[in-house]
Design a protein that fits this description.
- With about 240 residues, the chain is of the alpha+beta class.
- The longest helix has 19 residues.
- It is elongated, with a radius of gyration of 23 Å.
Length: about 240
Amino acid sequence: FIVRSNAAVSEIKGGTISNAIPRSAEFTGAVKDLESLEKFAAEFKAEVKQKYDAPEEFDIAIEQLDFIPPQIIENFTAVAGLIQNAPNNVISVNEKLDCVETSNNTAIIQGDINNINLLMTLRSIHDSERIKWCGIIREYFSDVNAESIIDDEYCAWESGNSPELVQTASDVFKELFNRQCIIKTIHAGLECGLFQAKNSTLPMISIGPPIRNPHSPSEELEIATLKDFYKFLTFLAKNILKK
């Protein structure tokens, strides 16, 4: 948006937490032709809603301020282009497991005339891929003398070391609800990865009640399923203890 609008930007901020795709962003700056910017915003809003199936509440708001920013971020158009062209979104898909293998998302951006800080979150179901892409992204930004810091890591959970536990959980589910449970690999940053990094032989599975829109303000839990989930968890724990 900013690259195409040719705005003189003095401050920008967007995103809320590291493990969520940003829902909103805003910038403060100056333009020579407000009418053209408003026209562009309306066209861009329509384009986004059509292309990405955005919700009805999606909007682009322009608010006139009582002051003109005294300074602007130098070469911001080039900086914005650098951020837009950085490795982002789905990087690779694992067809065998039928899930995303590696992804990177721009999570938070905060910038003014002094610094622009960009927080990205890289995930992969294989640690080797995560490490490789960390290096690729670091090199991408180092080409323009940007400082890259890896301050936290989503350790990959290389699942597959718990076939007996998976079978036990499947048997308990079938016994309780008279249907087969769905067993699948998902692409996410799970606590299991942290546990496995400490003990690679620890049997693990990840289970939970159905949720929608995770890691967002509109996250929802299907309350009606919570009772059955608690029942399943209780019976599974009892079955494991018997063994």
